[in-house]
Amino acid sequence: MITATQMTLGELIDELSKFKPDAWVMFAFGRLRPGYVDSYRGYYNELAIEPDGTDRHRKVGDLVVELKVCIGRKFTGYKGGEYVMGRDTPLWAAKNDQAFQACIVGVTDDNGDALIETASAVLCER
Fold first, then answer.
1. DSSP characters over 47-91
2. Residue 85 phi, psi (nearest 5)
3. Closest by CA position to 40, among listed 107, 88, 103, 122
4. Rounded distance, CA 73 to CA 86, Å?
5. CB-CB neighbours of 46 under 10 Å
6. Are 101 and 121 in contact (CB under 8 A)?
7. How confident is the model at residue 11 (pLDDT cuts 50, 70, 90)?
8. What angle do CA 58, 17, 91 make, to 5 degrees?
9. Disulfide check for 45: which of 5, 83, 92, 102 has CB 3.0–4.6 Å away?
10. Which of 110, 90, 92, 108 is nearest to 100 (CA)?
11. Whole-model pTM?
């Protein structure tokens, strides 16, 4: 079985920062744009980026700014509690109310645009 290493908040920031700020960013699956960032329902002390099914586009620079603000910030877990996120916080692709098992594992270049790659949690290593 092929496995992939789950990315952390700091790793995603570093990878996205290699792209031009005005490049588009999207998830590789379905070409969905990354929506807001919040505590992951599966593990409240981890973060999830919500796939947004709208046709709105998102620029790399905007997402990098939002991700940087998450460092040192307190998030409230789905059922309560406060959790401080850092550069080493693991990342997921999931809607706020779901413990969807897809971890973020990389970023690839698609003609200058950034594609966020995911994998099933079964295949993810930390």
1. EEEEEE-SS---BHHHHHHHHHHHTT-EEE-TTS-EEE--TT-BE
2. -100, 150
3. 103
4. 8
5. 22
6. yes
7. very high
8. 70
9. 83
10. 92
11. 0.92
